[in-house]
Amino acid sequence: MKASDTGPDTHLDQDRRSVLSWLLGGGIAASLGSFFYPVIRFMNPPHISEVAVDEVSGGKLNDLKANSGKIVKFGNKPVVLVRVSETEWKAFSAVCTHLNCTVQYQGSTRLIWCACHNGMYDLTGRVVSGPPPKPLEEYAVRVRGDEVIISRRA
Amino acid sequence: MRAKAANWLGERIDLNAVRELIEHKTVPVHSATRWYYFGGITLFLFAIQVITGILLMLYYRPTVSEAFESVRFIMTRVEFGWLIRSIHSWSANLLIFVAFVHMFSVVFTHAYRPPRELTWLTGIVLLGLMLFFGFSGYLLPWNQISYFATKVGTDVAASAPLIGPAIARFLRGGEDVGAPTLTRFFAFHVIILPLATMALIALHILLVQQNGMSTPPWLTASSVRQMRFFPNFFLRELMVWYCALAVLGALAAIFPWELGEKADSFASAPAGIRPEWYFLAQFYTLKLIPSHVWVFEGEILGILGFGLLAAFWVVLPFWGVDRAGAARARLVTGVGVLLASYLATFTVLGYVK
Description:
The structure holds two protein chains of two kinds. Chain A has one helix at 8-43; strands spanning 55-60, 68-74, 77-83, 89-93, 104-106, 111-114, 119-121, 127-129, 138-144, 147-151. By secondary structure, chain A is of the alpha+beta class. Chain A folds into two domains: 3-43; 55-151, Rieske Iron-sulfur Protein (3-layer Sandwich), CATH 2.102.10. Chain A has a six-stranded antiparallel sheet with strand order 1-10-9-4-3-2, with no helix packed on it. Chain A has a four-stranded antiparallel sheet with strand order 5-6-7-8, with no helix packed on it. In chain A, a hairpin with a 5-residue loop joins strand 7 and strand 8 (127-129). Chain B is mainly alpha-helical. In chain B, strand 3 (292-293) and strand 4 form a beta hairpin. The A-B interface holds A 31, 38-39, 41-46, 48 and B 51, 55, 58, 77-81, 83-84, 242.
């Protein structure tokens, strides 16, 4: 090897080379970032605000017999409306607190039952048996004329 | 570490063929070398189409009641949705333009000579698939312009003699353009055409690898300097792709693709209805042909003419060479110049008139 190979010029060359490769690598990294950033943001679904609903009609008074229930649309969530007796009404969120299945009222046991994993709730929304970890959220029900109105509890 | 990993992989997959190819592939260096890049750009733009197409499918809904709304949703609500859709549309148009440049570069450098006839044929079929991609994708946003363009386009197909009506019925999925057409075009656009295209691209590239790069006939292949494909040509190609992406990004950002108005089958066709630019030459030619020529209907005559021209063009490698396999260079160049000028002139005329 010649002496000049290890001289100051080589150091300068190496410096220049490392600056260039940093620039090139940085440029490539920045480009890749600018390609993937929009792609990742695109894949993230935009938030669609739910239509805020405070009360819905649960149908006519005589649509439902005593000791029976039905599912009513409350915004985009289901609510189970139960006519406990001629004069007593109850409504709960119909979304099981276990794994999101939709529950139903069982007249024979007078319980709200989830078919997916056999979760049972009583008519105050409390868990009676099965895997659900939390009670069902209760809604307010009142009768206006011959119409049943379900609303969010204050 | 790296050698260990390579060994581990090598014991499980035989990569020798790939290594051989990478080490031995070369590209001739001469005055027309730059034209070799256009096949690569076409491939790159196709990859962009696959990626952006998959992204658009995350939100697109292929039904008459939701197609337009879902594209509007992509354009207005999804982050960077306008950019992804604009890139998809612009890239589609650039892809077809670049594919035409690639085709004419093959004609003018006479690269269709034996043993490359199959490369030419697969390339022509690929160009046809690209045009079909464009035609089917055009309808998907379900807006006024695309709805009427599809009506006209499938009607042109219907006027072809004998098989025309059957083709049109097959394309439309019924007697007229409507909900079944959209479902069909969606299936063509996202499943049938991509599968066919990818298989053919694989064959096309395999043929290019097996036959090597063609050297123009005015040069002696053995005396032309060769450049290693990897990394020398490949890095150049990457830079070209990078520039293509820059052009694409700029076009998409500065001229975002419009959505127009939702298609309405009971509305009158809006003024200025015209197909995509790559069908303009044919569109304008059909406009010029009188409604009756002697005993024939003008449109049928036009379509027969296009069919014959296309068939003649497909078999170029067979009439474009003499018995010894050398290019009939003057003849092919002459025909190529004629065709290119016809397409360019009539596209421009179709656009301005």
